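[Discussion] Sanity-checking designs against the backbone

I'm trying to build intuition for which residues belong where. Below is a structure token string of 180 positions. I'd appreciate it if someone posts a full sequence so I can compare it with mine line by line.
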């Protein structure tokens, strides 16, 4: 059985510092096995003025209190969750919706700050938007959210919605081959 580690990152603007990450692990039938959320206190002084207003209105009100001291603890604890999921779930794949630039940048920062090599790299990162496009869906459409996917911009809820959309897009296609 295939498993998916779907993650989403909140950052201080598209190219800014990541400060929150959420994830879910689901099986190929959409059964949720685990979830997680990490954040550190976001230094609003580092946010560009245009992004700051948007973040204050759309992101910050939906986030729980920070549970990490700083960005390094965020990276360490996320990487522990990812490597634990790899150990616990055979054939797990990492998934994100439109991973560039935020989620890809986050993974690169994890690798840099934790001094990881390419052998540690989460590869491949499946892009939900590309799968939606390839299966006739609209990758830019704001999809309806299920109750457990609300509110938007909470990274765990966004990760949950992304993997649901992926599984719905894959429905009816031949099953994915297990990872080797």
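Best answer:
Here's mine. Compare freely.
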């Amino acid at each position: 059985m295939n498993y998916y580690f779907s993650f989403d990152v909140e950052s201080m603007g598209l190219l800014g510092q990541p400060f929150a990450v959420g994830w879910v692990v689901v099986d190929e039938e959409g059964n949720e096995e685990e979830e997680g959320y990490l954040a550190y206190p976001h230094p609003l002084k580092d946010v560009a003025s245009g992004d700051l207003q948007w973040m204050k209105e759309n992101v910050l009100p939906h986030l729980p209190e920070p549970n990490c001291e700083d960005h390094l603890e965020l990276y360490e604890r996320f990487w522990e969750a990812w490597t634990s999921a790899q150990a616990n779930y055979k054939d797990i794949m990492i998934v994100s919706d439109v991973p560039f630039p935020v989620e890809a940048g986050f993974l690169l920062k994890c690798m840099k700050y934790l001094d990881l090599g390419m052998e540690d790299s989460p590869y491949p990162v499946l892009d939900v938007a590309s799968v939606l496009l390839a299966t006739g869906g609209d990758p830019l459409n704001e999809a309806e959210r299920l109750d457990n996917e609300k509110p938007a911009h909470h990274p765990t809820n966004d990760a949950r919605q992304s993997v649901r959309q992926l599984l719905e897009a894959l429905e009816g296609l031949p099953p994915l081959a297990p990872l080797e």
